[in-house]
Amino acid sequence: MILCFSGTGNSLYAAKIISSACGDEIVSLNDTLKHGGPAQYFSEKPWVVVSPVHGWRLPAAIDALLRRAKFSGPRRMYFFLTCGSEAGDAAKYCRGLCQDIGMDYMGLNYAVMPENYLAMFPTPDAEEAGRIIQTARPGIEAAAAEIAAGRALADPNAGPLDKFKSGPVNRVFRAAFIKDKKFRALDSCIGCGKCARLCPVNDIVLEGGKPRWLGRCIHCMACICACPKEAIEYGRASVGRPRYYLDPERKV
Questions:
Q1: N or C terminus of the chain: which is more exposed, having fewer CB within 10 Å?
Q2: How far, in whole angstroms, is CA 74 from its chain's centroid?
Q3: Residues 229-243: tens digit of each pLDDT
Q4: Tens digits of per-residue pLDDT, 68-83?
Q5: What is the DSSP letter of 250?
Q6: CB of 170 within 8 A of CB of 56?
Q7: Rounded to an integer, what distance in angstroms lies between the CA atom of residue 218 and that of residue 203?
Q8: Are 237 and 245 in contact (CB under 8 A)?
Q9: Distance of CA 31 to CAs 38, 69, 193, 237, 251, Å?
Q10: pLDDT of residue 251
């Protein structure tokens, strides 16, 4: 079973490629987060967690979800992550997660996909995003083939800088930067509610036809990147930056 969390489509794109190679079902962790209830999963095949990197590690909400979930089936778990540059030392923390929940860690691989974190980094235009996706696909397919064959993935090499990013920098990032106070809706907002529907943690409500953020944001960037009118900004950081959202119906 493929357990997928995706903010703007990168990880869902990878999950579909892995699903095609392995013949496995994709289960949306977005839906589990959004609708609550017990996280209970059954599979006859090893588990594959597909997720973006947040601060060079699994998103905190996904780590917490996996720790409370009940798994029935094999005790082997793979990880495939998507990121805008590198995954840091994420493998160390995924390995630790497996140890804590009684899973056999089967390795981690990642793909550099178009950057979506326009709250902090430059994002690509459509042409550049297409090139990045095209470059990433062979690596995703290679990892999918290894998973389908039941072979362990080779963890990326992690140097001192990677360990620093996934350790101290991640802790500062989570505490200081993952906040929603800078989000704002422009007058061009049409009140369609897409941002609220996509938010995996129910952080957005519409008031007077405009979104209001409630303080539990996880910075998945779904709201700002998927807005059909580009009517959401994040302070001044997002102004003028392209919105990146990969259509989940895109063929793989």
A1: C
A2: 24
A3: 999 999 999 999 999
A4: 999 999 999 999 999 9
A5: -
A6: yes
A7: 9
A8: no
A9: 12, 14, 17, 29, 22
A10: 47
